[in-house]
Amino acid sequence: MLRISDPREQERVWRKVVKDELSVRAVEQMARKIAVKTKETPQIHHPRKPAYINKLETRLREKLGTQVKVRNRKEGGAIEIIYYSSEDLDRLMDIFDQIKF
Predict the structure, then answer these.
(1) pTM over 0.70, yes/no
(2) Are the beta carbons of 88 and 66 closer than 8 angstroms?
(3) Which of 2, 12, 45, 66 has the maximum number of C-beta atoms within 10 A of its C-beta?
(4) DSSP tag of 100
């Protein structure tokens, strides 16, 4: 079981060992499978958003009254505005129509 690094997974295996009265060999085999599965699963690292992006998302969310996501890239980026119905989209369009360019 020492091959399993996740404490929750260790506990899950321990409970199964006790419940099913597994042999040492069966436990080793189970732990080996879990370790291989965990190793094969790529760990996706999502970098944290800078604080100013979080603040910008909050300001936009408060102004627009809906979820907003800002995707920052090396050059440029994107702003995603979520709407939940056609009425919600119309409401957002009314807000954008009030902006004087």
Answers:
(1) no
(2) yes
(3) 66
(4) -
Distance between CA atoms of 89 and 80, rounded to whole angstroms?
Answer: 13
The H or E element spanning position 69 is strand 68-72
Contacts of residue 5, defined as CB under 8 A and 6 or more positions apart, other chains included, come to 38
Token digits for 68?
């907003």
Strand partners, 23: none
Q: One digit per residue, pLDDT tens: the chain, 101 residues?
A: 556 677 787 778 778 888 888 888 888 887 787 776 655 556 666 778 889 999 999 999 999 999 999 998 889 999 999 999 999 999 999 999 998 77
Spell out the alpha helix ranges (H) of the chain. Answer: 7-20, 24-40, 51-64, 86-97
